[in-house]
Specification:
single chain; alpha+beta; 3 domains; 14 helices; elongated
Length: about 475
């Protein structure tokens, strides 16, 4: 066993180990050497009578590794003595992508032999390897013993290393495996992880039939993001009516029959499901944005923000720095014209949740129970690029939020020219429908910025010219004009 491990991961002592003793502070980092060196005690949080072990999940098959690790904590909690404490642990090579090996550090204050029996069975039957830690001498120096199986089935500590403190790495280890392990950045990578469970076949059949999406759309695509109870549903429905738009949601409705099933799977498989949902949604966007603006309730920003926040352990500062490639938009996914992030204070959001009185989603339960997780989700939202989120204060009344958002859409997407707004005057926004950003210029007068704008007023299609401020109907002699105010 030890030889197989060393051939898979190279020289074991080249790795650094990180144990999350306290999620509010940095992990305890340690390395391995052939002999002890003077320095601070590594495991300051370990009591004198506690036995220590670590398990590390290894497999060349990313899916096998994800599925086994996903169920390992529950398995250990059931089979180990109640006196055992499980702490998240990772083994990695500093600043080397995809080098992280996930696992757990065990502190055992029981005197039971059950702990080593359970660990030995895992070593023999599953894709894990096991280490024990011993503390000896007056200076309480720690050593790590890498277990292996003998031919007759006994478990022995075949490799011994001295545990020494290690420097804090530049990046938290949990950030090294995010790409295509927690967040997918291409359709092909997400598709590879989709064929896992029986329900996958039906999902992949839908994906194979997905509508083609183009990089550019005729009408603007506006995404509304935000945590639960920030007003996304109210705003998306109001915008749809005000702009004569099409409302879509991600993941799309066609995936609803399988959503609950995939939500029970490990993060890798669950994230692949939601990533594929974004590509299905992109196909719908490509079709609908030919005819009208599209309002989208969540999109890739949600998928990425929650995945990054879940993947990154510890405190807020452990998130990848702004500008990191993990915040980049997938190169083959249709980009929206504008992404608006609704923001509320935690107190107001909780008040709205209580008033709403609906069952909490899995995400909402995590957000409520874990203030740090909520902070990481919100910060990840803010750091995603291409396009970045524009934050909107969602604390005013729904009508005020709507007006605020309409102004942003007008400014960012150029849905209406100044001339059109002046002609319409005091008419409400929902009396107009936006027209394509790339409408045939033969049907109207081109604005200075090259865009042709128009709309629909009382059932009549109109186009607006910049130069004279006139409004013309298709097929009408432009010299005739049309005075809306006179109507």
């Amino acid at each position: 066993m030890a030889r197989r491990i060393l051939s898979r991961f190279g020289h074991w002592s080249s790795y650094v180990f990180a144990v999350e003793f306290d999620t509010k502070s940095d992990p305890i980092y340690f390395a391995l050497e052939g002999k002890h060196s003077e320095g601070p005690q590594v495991f300051r949080n370990v009591l004198a009578d506690e036995r220590c072990y670590s398990l590390h999940v290894y497999s060349d098959d990313i899916i096998e590794r994800a599925k086994f690790y996903g169920g390992l904590k529950n398995k250990l909690s059931k089979e180990l003595p109640s006196e055992c404490t499980l702490l998240e642990m990772s083994t990695f090579q500093p600043n080397v992508k995809d080098s992280v090996i996930k696992g757990y550090f065990l502190k055992d204050s029981s005197k039971s032999s059950a702990t080593e029996r359970v660990l030995g069975e895992l070593l023999r039957n599953d894709p894990v390897y096991v280490c024990s830690y011993l503390c000896g001498g007056e200076d309480r120096q720690w050593s790590q013993h890498l277990w292996s199986n003998t031919e007759d089935g006994w478990v022995v500590g075949s490799e011994k290393y001295c545990v020494v403190p290690a420097e804090k790495p530049k990046h938290h280890p949990s950030t090294l495996n995010i790409i295509n392990d927690d967040v997918f950045y291409s359709f092909e990578d997400a598709y590879k992880c989709g064929d896992i469970i029986p329900e996958s076949k039906a999902v992949l059949e839908l994906v194979d039939q997905r509508l083609e999406s183009k990089e550019k759309t005729a009408f603007p695509v506006i995404v509304i993001e935000g945590l639960d109870a920030t007003g996304k549903t109210t705003l998306t429905e109001s915008l749809t009516e005000a702009l004569g738009a099409t409302l879509l949601r991600s993941p799309p409705q066609c995936l609803s029959p399988w959503r609950a099933r995939f939500d029970t799977e490990p993060p890798l498989i669950r994230r692949a499901f939601y990533a594929l949902g974004n590509y299905l949604t992109a196909g719908q966007i490509g079709q609908e944005a030919r005819k009208a603006p599209v309002i989208l309730d969540r999109y890739w920003h949600s998928t990425a923000a929650y995945a990054i926040a879940t993947a990154v352990g510890g405190k807020l500062g452990n998130l990848p720095q702004a500008g990191s490639e993990v915040y980049g938009w997938p190169g083959d996914l249709l980009r929206p014209s504008l992404v608006l992030l609704l923001s509320l204070s935690p107190q107001e959001r909780m008040r709205r949740l209580q008033v709403r009185g609906q069952d909490k989603t899995r995400e909402e339960e995590e957000l409520e129970a874990n203030h740090l997780f909520r902070q990481k989700v919100e910060e990840a939202y803010q750091r995603i690029e291409g396009p970045a989120c524009v934050t909107v204060d969602a604390s005013p009344s729904p009508d005020q939020v709507l007006q605020q958002v309409l102004l942003l859409i007008r400014e960012k997407c150029h849905l209406y020219s100044d001339a059109l707004m002046q002609v319409v005057g005091n008419y409400s926004v929902n009396q107009m429908k936006a027209v394509p950003q790339n409408m045939n210029t033969e049907r109207g007068v081109e604005r200075r910025d090259g865009a042709v704008m128009g709309g629909e007023w009382e059932g009549m299609e109109v186009l607006v010219g910049e130069g004279e401020g006139g409004v013309w109907c298709p097929g009408m002699d432009p010299s005739t004009g049309l005075d809306l105010a006179a109507r």
